[in-house]
Olfactory receptor (Vombatus ursinus), 353 residues
Amino acid sequence: LLHSCTILCLTIPQLMDIYHTFPQNNSRVTEFVLVGLSTSWELQIIFFLQPFYFLFFTMFYMAILLGNFLIVLTVISEPALHTPMYFLLSNLSFIDVCLSSFATPKMIADLLLERKSISFNGCMTQIFFLHVFAGGEMVLLVAMAYDRYVAICKPLHYATIMSLQKCTGLVVASWVIGILHSLSQLAFTVNLPFCGPNEVDSFFCDLPLVIKLACVDTYILEIMMLSDSGLMAMTSFILLLISYTVILVTVQQHSSAGTAKARATLTAHITVVALFFGPCIFIYAWPFKNFPVDKVLSVFYTVFTPLLNPIIYTLRNKEMKSAMQKLKGQLMNSRQLSQLSLTMRTDHLLMKP
């Protein structure tokens, strides 16, 4: 972020020169047309499959909400899970819900529409929240890796280092960095003149695709965007790589019953990191060249990854599964008590003369 701020400060004079050269009589684009998941040669096939896609993505989105909110509710309701790891995990689940919600509901609704459009302000809003949630999740994944590093490499100091204040600070930092990252991406994009083509070849407004539609040379903006997003992603990925390498080496040097649990936890964390960073790295490695697989990868990290995260963390976690079973029992008992109370009240009313 410091590097991005430096680039931003150095290029402000050049960018101001660009804006002074903008044509003053351009008719500003008020909306963008989203191509969606299809390409031109697929339109006829997609038309017949739209009802299936609507049901498919609706079920996936409902599963995302259910799975991630279930993790949050389980962590809140179970005192045994009031630990730094599960505190960070519940926040990851909340960000996953946000990441899947910035574009997925509109994508589902657009499957039933012939013309898929979004207003200019709506498009900028999508870009803003995409980078807020994606940037925040990157930082949160680093925080989770730091938590595992302290737990495995410095277990005697774990309670002291990973205090409630430290965990809260890490979560707040992830949101603040995500917001700053997003603002740095949108700082000059919102004022670009869009006066010509307005067709975005995706199912949501992605910054590289939108910048290409501007009526001026956006070379400097492209460099800034690459520097900002690339530096943040690479820094997060390198920190994660170093952390998990040190942790794996430490685990290999010890042979005990606890290492099996540590390996299972690490496997879950590394899998989530790979699923999140893999598509992002591929898409943003060539951000201004559009490949057909980009749409698949965009769906993957906005729809599939938020669903896979709760599955990965719960299937390999006995504590979480046990807590969910306990929560299920509590909910069933509460429902039975409510039904019993209702039955008793009904019988009491019927017995009155």
